[in-house]
């Protein structure tokens, strides 16, 4: 952190916007720990509460990005909310809870379940509800909409705005999405390399961003409107002197900046794909999980219901849907990690020699698949041994901002969440799979650098089948040729990307697109 100065007024929503690794999470942790420990560099006027052992604590709450994983699997979510409120000496308000659940379109019964019975997005919603029910003076949220679809994101941001006005609660929200941050915030701090490069009222930032880094963030956002705009250099390094963005700035003087341009346009107009062979086929797939309702009663939760689809080679498919619609379960079944109750998944063979096709995947929670006792260099060495091109892993690691000479000696635990996602992506991409399944793998990656990863997919997997699952319809539209809308385990609509956006056939897809455009509405006034 360098030269950080910020003030948050009562009832104000302050946003911290920046790319992955710029220091947003570190800053929120420093602020929260500093408040708890009485750091004199922080001036606190938000009041205190008395904890269980009689200590006065600042009436503030920090909701980290990994908060959903901190829920206790032994107790229901509602029981955990009650315990937290009891520890803070706050009375439980059933009317307020029902009001919040109604505004986000969820039944209060969702909170009666244990965390493992909820999707990642639903767990995230539960943690945010827990923070809101306490009604503290300040709530700090790190990437609060990471696991949420556009509709849930819009509802949550609306609740943040209403709580700031009705209850005078102040918020600090950090994120990589300019749409989310500008939609919710009154004031925005733009962060890069541990410092604020620009701080401004939201409307001023949208209409007249001053710093080149801010302009880049505002412009380079994966969506159907930027489908032809490509970013082919990962932004991760900091200049040691002067402006930290100097190495990437298009306005820097010739003698002090790199000659590599970070932007280029790629004309994809007129591209025609020939009908390719079927690489992966799902036939009448069903999947049901049992949920325990009481001691002697179980409920059947139909997650996938009669899913059939043929995925062609050379085509990129986007699967969109709200949290809990069955997307992750479908990804696990397609990748072979989970078995359907009935139906089948059929993988094609290579026509030349009859060998099996290579199916690889990257899931949202990469930490479960990366051993913390190994270093990045260990993974690089093992992947290069099985890759069709042993040198490709090094090229891709450089492209995603993880050069071996700088990060090779680091253990998995020493990498940030975004860095782990980039490592998993590089490991899989360098194996040049015939089918690549991506289950929300870019949730911790900022939009400009996500465009870099998308360009790598286009570059190396042009003839492969890509199945990209995400709750963000703009990212899906940017990467994919075809969109499949998924809800309650079924396909509700599917078509080419352009047709989906021009003529929605179902209210479900229409609402997803509407919510996404609503979140971006303030950004559209950007010149």
Automatic annotation (TrEMBL):
* Transmembrane feature ranges: none
InterPro entries this protein is in? AAA+_ATPase, ABC_transp_ATP-bind, ABC_transporter-like_ATP-bd, ABC_transporter-like_CS, Oligopep_ABC_C, P-loop_NTPase
Question: What's in the keyword line of the UniProt record?
Answer: ATP-binding, Nucleotide-binding, Transport
Which residue ranges does the record assign to the ABC transporter domain? 1-218, 280-513
Signal peptide feature range: none
Listed under GO biological process in this entry are: peptide transport; transmembrane transport
Q: Does the keyword ATP-binding apply?
A: yes
Q: GO molecular function: any one?
A: ATP hydrolysis activity
Organism superkingdom: Archaea
Where, if anywhere, are coiled coils annotated?
none
Q: Which SMART domains match?
A: AAA (SM00382)
Family to which the UniProt record says this protein belongs: Belongs to the ABC transporter superfamily.
Give the protein name, as stated in the record. Oligopeptide ABC transporter, ABC-binding protein related protein
């Amino acid at each position: 952190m360098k030269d950080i100065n910020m003030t948050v007024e009562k009832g104000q929503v302050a946003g911290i916007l920046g790319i992955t690794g710029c220091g947003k999470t570190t800053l929120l942790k420093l602020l929260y720990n500093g408040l708890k420990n009485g750091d004199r560099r922080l001036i606190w006027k938000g009041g205190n509460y008395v904890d269980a052992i009689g200590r006065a604590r600042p009436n503030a709450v920090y909701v980290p990005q990994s908060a959903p994983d901190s829920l206790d699997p032994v107790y229901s979510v509602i029981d955990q909310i009650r315990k937290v409120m009891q520890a803070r000496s706050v009375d439980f308000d059933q009317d307020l809870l029902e009001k919040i659940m109604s505004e986000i379109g969820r039944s209060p019964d969702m909170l009666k379940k244990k965390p493992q019975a909820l999707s990642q997005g639903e767990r995230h919603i539960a943690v945010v509800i827990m923070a809101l029910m306490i009604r503290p003076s300040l709530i700090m949220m790190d990437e609060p909409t990471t696991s949420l679809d556009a509709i849930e994101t819009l509802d949550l941001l609306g609740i943040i705005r209403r709580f700031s006005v009705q209850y005078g609660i102040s918020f600090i929200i950090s994120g990589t999405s300019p749409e989310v941050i500008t939609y919710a915030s009154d004031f925005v701090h733009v962060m890069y390399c541990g410092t604020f490069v620009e701080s401004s009222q939201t409307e001023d930032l949208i209409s007249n961003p001053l710093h080149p880094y801010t302009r880049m963030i505002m412009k380079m956002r994966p969506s159907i409107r930027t489908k032809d705009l490509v970013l082919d250099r990962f932004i991760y390094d900091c200049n040691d002197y002067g402006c930290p963005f100097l190495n990437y700035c298009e306005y820097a003087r010739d003698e002090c900046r790199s000659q590599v341009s970070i932007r280029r346009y790629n004309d994809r107009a007129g591209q025609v794909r020939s009908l390719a062979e079927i690489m992966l086929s799902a036939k009448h797939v069903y999947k049901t999980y049992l949920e325990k309702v009481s001691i002697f009663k179980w409920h059947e939760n139909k997650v996938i219901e009669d899913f059939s689809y043929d995925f062609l080679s050379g085509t990129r498919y986007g699967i969109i849907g709200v949290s809990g619609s069955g997307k992750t379960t479908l990804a696990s079944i397609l990748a072979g990690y989970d078995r359907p109750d009935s139906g089948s998944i059929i993988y094609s063979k290579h026509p030349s020699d009859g060998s099996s096709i290579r199916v690889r995947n990257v899931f949202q929670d990469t930490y479960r698949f990366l051993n913390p006792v190994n270093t990045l260099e260990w993974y690089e060495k093992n992947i290069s041994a099985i890759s069709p091109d042993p040198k490709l892993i090094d090229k891709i690691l450089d492209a995603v901002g993880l050069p071996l000479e700088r990060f090779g000696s680091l253990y998995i635990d020493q990498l940030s969440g975004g860095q782990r996602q980039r490592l998993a992506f590089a490991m899989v991409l360098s194996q040049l799979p015939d089918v690549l399944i991506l289950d929300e793998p870019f949730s911790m990656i900022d939009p400009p650098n996500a465009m870099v990863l998308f360009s790598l997919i286009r570059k190396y997997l042009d003839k492969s089948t890509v199945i990209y699952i995400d709750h963000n319809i703009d990212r899906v539209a940017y990467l994919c040729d075809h969109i499949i809308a998924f809800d309650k385990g079924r396909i509700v609509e599917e078509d080419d990307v352009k047709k989906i956006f021009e003529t929605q056939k179902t209210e479900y897809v229409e609402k997803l697109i509407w919510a996404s455009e609503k979140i971006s509405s303030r950004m559209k006034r950007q010149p």
